[in-house]
Specification:
By secondary structure, the protein is of the alpha/beta class. It folds into 4 domains: 129 residues, Orthogonal Bundle (N-utilizing Substance Protein B Homolog, Chain A); 35 residues, no CATH class; 57 residues, Sun protein, domain 3 (Alpha-Beta Plaits), CATH 3.30.70.1170; 200 residues, 3-Layer(aba) Sandwich (Rossmann fold), CATH 3.40.50. The protein contains 19 helices and 12 strands. Strands 5, 6, 7, 8, 9, 10, 11 and 12 form an 8-stranded mixed β-sheet that branches. Strands 2-3-1-4 form a 4-stranded antiparallel β-sheet, covered by helices on one side. The structure holds S-adenosylmethionine. It comes from Anaerosporomusa subterranea.
């Protein structure tokens, strides 16, 4: 099996068909019976190349006088894969990286492109100095963006907010694979009993400091092989995401709406805190995502949850003044969770940060009208940018004086100061997350 060829197929699909690297890779692994070594090498090639995409293209520009967009797609992706191995995979000998790329060019190109690939990669292998990044002192922005594989617009944004050391730590943290965390399904088992059960199934894990249900896995066999998963004893969920339901603080017997609910991580947590009583309405725009919510609820033994496919901005047409609590876990740029998907940083654009707040405000305003007087509204995102977070809340408060801000920090299992909660990967070592809480008068 030619692992580089398979890696090239995935990288090409990410480039040309906007495929998601993690999904394309998982499909490839499921379709083939790879040895552990091959699976690891394929993962390294794909994740490494797509994460370093911008830096690799900058390196390419040092050896090729055309921009990548002007090179035929398959050939530029062969170069990307080759340059990744030359510059970032020390265990691959440069001759192997070049020869294998030339073989791929023979398969997908013509004699001219074979010569081109050969010339570019051999020149890069001979003269790596030519692709030396500027130093911090010469060009801080470019140094950080190239060294830590982030788009310049994003680094520039963060440099306006924080000093360069803090930005460097954040970029480093965004490149580390996140720890796997699980939320105990307290409807079926206590965290202590689940820790024992997981240890029996070969999982090395410890209790989370952030939430009373959280468990951090350090080593584990394939997740799908765990019977505790099939029995619905836990839900995979990041620790910062687990905090949101605690800020909502739903009570047994209440009517709670999760306005952007799929695939149900927080909906199923809310249902567990409600002790599977009352009514939990999990709403989403997409039926195929709601099907996953229902499947999660079934596996976890939750019966108080129902799903509804609709636009949350229009929810009050059906539920005006009816709900005790509403959660809006809004669609967002996802800049707090870059470490989860290696290619996601290259899909984001600064213009999304202008468009998303309008959507977020319209969903928040529509969903808020479902609350009874005295009801609680929680707004959360997995982003770190003020335009999508506190500025949306300030704008909402200016048009809805019947709401007031409450402290979200004081509702965390380990309380913090402040009205808003903003978590950061480099400060809190969890996903970047924003949580706010309001009350309707
Ligand atoms: C951040 S995700 C929610 C994650 C979910 N709360 C969880 O914990 O599993 C945002 C969700 O909002 C949904 N969405 C986007 N626009 C929407 C709208 N206008 N109305 C309802 N849902 C929407 C998306 O389909 C997506 O599933």
């Amino acid at each position: 099996m030619n692992i580089r060829q398979l890696a090239l197929q995935i990288i090409h699909d990410v480039d040309v068909k906007q495929a998601y690297a993690n999904i394309a890779l998982a499909n490839m692994i499921n379709r083939n019976n790879f040895s552990d070594q091959d699976r690891r090498f394929l993962t390294e090639l794909v994740y490494g190349t797509v994460k370093a995409w911008g830096t690799i293209d900058w390196i390419m520009s040092r050896y090729v006088d055309r921009p990548p967009a002007k090179i035929p797609p398959m050939i530029r992706n062969i170069l990307r894969l080759g340059l990744y191995q030359l510059f970032f995979l020390s265990k691959v000998p440069p001759s192997a990286a070049c020869n294998q790329a030339v073989e791929l060019a023979k398969k997908y190109g013509h004699p001219g492109t074979v010569k081109f690939v050969n010339a570019v990669l051999r020149s890069a292998a001979r003269n790596q100095e030519k692709a030396k990044y500027p130093t911090k002192e010469e060009d801080l922005l470019r140094y950080l963006a190239l060294t830590y594989f982030h788009p310049e617009w994003l680094v520039s944004r963060w440099l306006k907010r924080f000093d360069s050391e803090a930005v460097e730590r954040l970029l480093q943290e965004n490149n580390k694979p996140p720890r796997l965390s699980l939320r105990t399904n307290t409807l079926k088992i206590t965290r202590e009993a689940l820790l024992v059960r997981l240890a029996q199934e070969g999982v090395t894990c410890t209790a989370s400091d952030w939430t009373p249900e959280g468990i951090i896995c350090h080593e584990l066999p394939a997740l799908a092989s765990l019977t505790s998963l099939k029995e619905g004893l836990f839900q995979v969920q990041d620790e910062s995401s687990m905090l949101v339901a605690h800020v909502v603080d739903p009570q047994p017997g209440e009517f709670v709406i999760d306005a952007c609910g799929a695939p149900g991580g927080k909906s199923t947590h809310l249902a567990a805190l409600m002790k599977n009583t009352g009514r939990l309405l999990s709403v989403d725009l997409f039926e195929h995502k709601l099907a996953i919510t229902r499947e999660n609820a079934r596996r976890l033994g939750i019966t108080c949850l129902e799903t509804l496919q609709t636009d949350a901005a229009t929810l009050s047409d059906q539920f005006s003044g009816k709900a005790d609590r509403v959660l809006v876990d809004a669609p967002c740029s996802g800049l707090g969770v870059l470490r989860r998907k290696p290619d996601s940083r290259w899909r984001k654009t600064e213009s999304q940060l202008q468009d998303l707040p309008k959507l977020q405000l319209s969903i928040l305003t529509g969903a808020a009208s479902c609350l009874k007087p005295g009801g609680v509204l929680v707004y959360s995102t997995c982003t770190t940018e003020p335009e999508e977070n506190e500025m949306v809340i300030r704008e909402f408060l200016s048009i809805r004086p019947d709401f007031s801000l409450q402290s979200a920090g004081s509702r965390l299992p380990s309380p913090r100061q402040g009205e808003f909660v903003q978590l950061w990967p480099h400060l809190d070592f969890v996903d970047g997350f924003f949580i706010s809480r309001l009350k309707k008068h």
